[in-house]
From TrEMBL:
Cofactor annotation remark: Binds 1 lipoyl cofactor covalently.
One GO cellular component term noted in the UniProt record for this chain: glycine cleavage complex
Record GO biological process: glycine decarboxylation via glycine cleavage system; protein lipoylation
Entry cofactors: (R)-lipoate
Source organism of this protein record: Aspergillus caelatus
Assembly mode: The glycine cleavage system is composed of four proteins: P, T, L and H.
Protein name: Glycine cleavage system H protein
Classification of source organism: Eukaryota, Fungi, Dikarya, Ascomycota, Pezizomycotina
The family this protein is said to belong to: Belongs to the GcvH family.
HAMAP family in the cross-refs: GcvH (MF_00272)
PROSITE patterns attached to this UniProt entry: BIOTINYL_LIPOYL, LIPOYL
Amino acid sequence: MSAVARSVRPFASRVLSQKLPLAAACRVSPAAGFPRGSVRSFSQSPFMELKKYTESHEWIELAADGKTAKIGITEYAAHSLGDVVFVELPAEDLEVQAGEPVGAVESVKSASDVNSPVSGKVIQGNAILEDKAKFINESPEGDAWIAEIEVTDAAELDSLLDAETYKENYAKE
């Protein structure tokens, strides 16, 4: 919190707690006196749920622009694979359909394709993984994304799993 906010808060609290003239006392709440939209709400909008999951353990996180997204493997998948030794990244401008491979991950245990959850065009692969494939074990759902794509149809995200449903599904495995 900034120094200005710390110094204004006690003053604002005293002013609001003072007895107001009768006209002002008719207000239902202090928020009613503020212009619409100026009061902060801390509830989460369903539009803010940008990360979705597939049953085959990939995730996709839609960027704020609603057009680009990052794709990677889940923590569960990274843990199941073990130590990752190689990540095959997609070529730029590759057109992919939902369910088609967009890359692959090889570990000491096995190899697995990474399928695109939605249709789109690859913007770039994560260059960090070319030199440091093990990074995918450290941050599979964070900075170790595999591909960034331009999403063709954002409506395809509706058929994917939210975090809670995904966790319930893999808990059964």
